[in-house]
Every structure is written in structure tokens, then in C-alpha cells.
Amino acid sequence: MKQLEISVVTDINAIAHTVEYVKSVRKTLFPMLNHEHIPADLQDFESTYIKNPKGIFLQAKLGNQLIGTVGMMEFNYRFPLLDIPDNAVEVTRLFVEPEFRKMGIATNLINRLKLYAIKKGIDYLYLHTHHFLPGATDFWSKQNFTFIEVTIENNVETLHFGYEMH
């Protein structure tokens, strides 16, 4: 039986593969988006997740198969109505392949991400999710993230969560 390996994405080959994986998952989960527009964090993955001292990107693999990801990037305070503390990061791109869900992989990824946040001296983890992502709000609550607020933009509800590191 293959063993789950969680590692930090750093080398150029892993970056290219990971970005393609994330873009593919986004097409499945968010068919309503314009996928010709590539989000800034994926366009400049290295600056966002590797070179930035607040960034990191983790991948979960079984053998050579990439089955999950999660990232942490410097929070840009793009939601001005939210009262997010200083020294916050945004948790991004938590994806686990459907056939590997409910096996603790996402929890493993988040726990590892929290350890890196501690090492980096981060005070607060912020994230947002949506009702149409099955199980997302329950998952984040189980990870001890606190619900902050719902915002609505372009008829899409966005649920905001936070986690105090101390």
C-alpha cells in the first residue's frame, strides 16, 4: 500500500505540475469562472508561495499521484468590510481528489499548514469558501476555524472564516 506523503512544493517541475493540477480542479469546482483568466497566485506561484516569507504550498501524494493541495499566502485585505487582524495569511487552494475525501487528507494538510504558520510567526489564518462546495463549511468548523461573515458579490455568497494562531 502506498503511503501518503505531504511535502512543500519548491522545485520547478513540481511547481508546473501543481499549477496545472490546481487549474484543472478549479475548472471542475468552479465551472462558472472564466478559466482563461489565471489567478495571480497561480500566474506568479513562485513569488506568492515560495519567495514570500508568509507563503507556502503543500501537496499530498500517494506514490506519484497528486491527490491534494493547500496553500498559504500573504493576505491582501481585499475584503475591506472584514476585520482581519494584522499578520494574517490566506489559506488557499485546499483540494482533495473526490475518491480520497473523508480519509483525513484535508485535515492532515491543514494541520501541517498550521505548523508552518507557527514557524513563520503568523498570527491569523483567513479563508473564504462557498455553500456550493459540498462539506466545506462543516470541514472548516471541524478544523476550529470561526465563521466571520457572509458577503454577497455578483449573486454569489462567500463565507469568511478565521483561525487565531494563539
TrEMBL record:
SUPFAM superfamilies named in the record: Acyl-CoA N-acyltransferases (Nat)
Pfam families associated with the record? Acetyltransf_1
| UniProt cross-references to InterPro entries, sorted A to Z | Acyl_CoA_acyltransferase, GNAT_dom
A GO MF label: acyltransferase activity, transferring groups other than amino-acyl groups
Spell out the coiled coil positions from the record: none
Q: What is this protein called?
A: Acetyltransferase (GNAT) family
- The residue ranges of the N-acetyltransferase domain are 16-166
Keyword S-adenosyl-L-methionine listed: no
Q: Does the keyword Transferase apply?
A: yes
Organism equals Candidatus Ornithobacterium hominis
Entry keywords, A to Z: Transferase
